[in-house]
Amino acid sequence: MDYTMIFDIKVLLVVIAALGCFVLGLLLVLLNKSKKHREELIEIETEAISDLDKVEQEYKQKDNERDEKIKEEYEAKISEFKTYVHNIEEISKNSTDIQIHTLLTDLKEKLVREGVIKPLEMMVLSNVFLPMKTEKSEMTPNKINHIVLMRTGIYIIDNNEFYGNILHGLTRGKAKEFSFLFDHLSTTEEKEAEKTIIFENNNVDQTGMNVYSVKNPVSNLLGGVDYFKQLLRGQINDSAVTPILYFNHHDNSLINFSEMKAPYVFDDQAVLSKFFVRQLEKANTVYTEGELEKIKSTIENLNPTQSLSFNTNTLDRTKLQA
Hints:
Elements: H1 3-92, H2 95-113, E1 122-133, E2 139-150, E3 153-161, E4 164-170, H3 172-175, H4 179-184, E5 195-200, E6 210-214, H5 217-231, E7 241-248, E8 254-256, E9 264-266, H6 269-282, H7 289-302
Parallel strand pairs: 3-7, 4-8, 7-9
Antiparallel strand pairs: 1-2, 2-3, 4-5, 5-6
Transmembrane segments: 12-31
Keywords: Coiled coil, Membrane, Transmembrane, Transmembrane helix
Protein name: NERD domain-containing protein
């Protein structure tokens, strides 16, 4: 082998070694950059997580503050509403409310004593106020005089107390020769609708009489029944809610001209009592004792004052929830 070839081989080895060192150095540089890049990525990721934690904590704090504010506003509204309802309760009680409540609770005691019903198959809730939202989303109380829960259904009673003779459900056509009276007591839109007209003789001398029409008690009652059904939707059978209109005319008279199938209309406590007895004798069972208890509990929870008492000297609180 000549020296020229040996020299060429050595040169080639040197070149290869140099290239190897260059590649190795390049790899080391790239590896170092990659490590630094990973460290930078980890640092950025850590900072991002920290920032997200801060944002989440700030959001939770604001969310808690907002919830607390909403809770305070809600509790303030509830407190104001309860006070309002309590004041309304005090001025809305009348002798008829107490009389009918006594009638119903006495009837229940009699039926239980005779073995006709079990104690939980008839419950009487009186002077119930249910919260109702207005168009402005404000709460206003909707009063129901009496709610009777029985195995045969739910009965909602609206009391009306007047001192005088009552013409209920009168229309212009039925007024006949006295249609002029109907015209004077009705607006143009109401002339064909049923009206309730009172001939009041309380505190009026024998030569005079007050005659006036009242806001349709049927509309008021049926509206309350519809609202009651909405509140207990899914828990009650709509067809098993019976509206009852009771008139106390203080030994005067009631003439019922109405042709409406509902509500039932009574002006005699004995007849009203017999109505419930007939319901128990003839109507089918709709609710079990357990279902009646759940319905009663729901109504009591909806009642903002959670008190169904009249707070009078004539009745104690225990008799007002039967």
